[in-house]
TrEMBL record, chain A:
GO terms for cellular component: ATP-binding cassette (ABC) transporter complex. It is a multi-pass membrane protein. InterPro entries: ABC2_TM (IPR013525), ABC2_TM_bact-type (IPR047817), ABC_2_transport (IPR000412), Nod_factor_ABC_transporter (IPR051784). This is Transport permease protein. It is found in: Cell membrane; Membrane. Its main location: membrane.
Automatic annotation (TrEMBL), chain B:
It is a peripheral membrane protein. GO terms for cellular component: plasma membrane. Residues 5-235 form the ABC transporter domain. One of its GO terms (biological process) is response to antibiotic. Keywords: Antibiotic resistance, ATP-binding, Nucleotide-binding, Transport. This is ABC-2 type transport system ATP-binding protein. Gene3D superfamilies: P-loop containing nucleotide triphosphate hydrolases (3.40.50.300). It is found in: Cell membrane. PROSITE patterns: ABC_TRANSPORTER_1 (PS00211), ABC_TRANSPORTER_2 (PS50893). GO terms for molecular function: ATP binding; ATP hydrolysis activity.
Amino acid sequence: MTTVAREPGGRLRWAVTDALTVAGRDVAHWRRQPAGLVVGLLFPVLLMVVFVYLLGGGIAVPGGSYRDFMVPGMLALVMLFGLEGTMTAVVTDTQRGVTDRFRALPMAQSAVVTGRCLADLAASVAGLALVALAGLAMGWRPDPGPGVVTAVGLLLLLRVGFLWVGIWLGLLARDPSLVAAVQILIWPFAFLSNVFVPVSSMPGWLGTLAAWNPVAATVTAVRELTGVPVSDDGWATEHATLLAVAWPVVLTAVFAALSVRRWQGLSR
Amino acid sequence: MGASVEIRGLVKWYGGRAVLDGVDLDVAPGSVCALLGPNGAGKTTAVRIATTLLRPDGGRVEVAGVDVVARPREVRRRIGTVGQQATVDEVLGARQNLVLFGRLHHLDRATARRRAGELLAQVGLPDTGAQPVREFSGGMRRRLDIAAALVLAPQVLFLDEPTTGLDPAGRRDVWAAVRDLVAGGTTVLLTTQYLEEAERLADQVSVLDGGRVVASGAPRELTAAIGGDRLELVVTDPARAAEAAALAERVAAGPPVPDRRGEGARLTVPVSRRAGVVGNVVRALDEAGIGVADLVLRPTTLDEAYLRITGRDRVAEEVPA
């Protein structure tokens, strides 16, 4: 007879512990290679400075302050950019065989993904904080109160939705070229929203498309919650808060299911 | 006690083609089995199924007495797996990696730290501190890879082409690490394209070709089964090599194989192991007036056995060993 390590505690306990261990690996990466994280965190701030001080002067927005218009948009954009990080991490681990190593371990298999979620959400919280601080430094003053908490909640909810898109894309990619493609395509996706300009300034059908962008719903909701004037641009804008909840829920449901299928497909 | 790895009628399909077409394999506890075969023979597929990473389409695999399809989690607790690439974290240091994998094997923090130290010593890695693994040599990385597979002192260790891409020093390091493990009682199933590796490490070799085990046995049995020894001759006059080959063929057991890589003066003659065969060949050549510059009698190499078994000695292409 051979002795095998016993597993005290239930599966749930190990699912949580293993997820924290997997997430801790990302934290160790950040500590050892802070440059990548810092550049990723500073890029949205840089982009915001460019738009507010260099380009924004020529863009008419409701309420007149491009800065107040831009900050909520950039907060939501940080959530979209997070998708690239998630996807890159998943592709890298799968390519280097780390995913297979995890799959052959007696650990909770869910932890590979939940650990990824925890680490990415932590990075996104840091990203949000930095953009918010930069916004404050630039003179942005959100309405204080519970609206801010709700806004943060909606932003992170959007991140969860994009997280699953990133995981699915990461599992789908056979090589890093898809990452490069996503890094390019993310821009038209970002511009086709109300992040940088009001949708009312776009041609009719494009404006409608932009208003229905998942990012746009969260941006409008965050603008409303932080006291930035929002113009009435149709149904999607009127029901922005509803859509800001519905979109992430739909994204999560669809892409989590696709990711699970893809994950199971690894053993076929 | 049954086999540590028992594979029966294993079948795996990919896109309408059977990559594994009824593989049977037994690995005795405490032994080293080398799964030998060319690229695409199905070696990796077989290992991935045995290590719970792939589901088979037919047949049965038991590892340490546990069915890999029915109880994968229990199999994972009894095995160590080293894939074709080094699958350790490149950013972290050696010790940090081992602590991470220890934690994922559900060791507590203190035990994981202690175990990391033991494993580094076990595979002969120096303490490199916080140096990231990406800066390691191939051999060091591979040894760390093996250490990461040994966290729970597995009963069975799977090594998929453990020395592919390593320089000779790295290869020697890995071989030494594997030998130490086997001395400690671990069962090892390794895949390799290198006959030398199989010869050096394995108690048993199974040749996989076209999704089937085409030959199986101890390295020496395999070589003996296909024609005993080889007589290597170098004749002084290359022009008479063909004549010498014909003569040797008549005297010795099998047809000679002229070595095309030589200048035409070198012959390799399969001979059956019997008294006087060398003398007979030399006498026959001497009587014909063919000078012999060099002569060596040696056992058939696994290389030659392998080429014969897989039928690749009959096609004119070089098979990379």
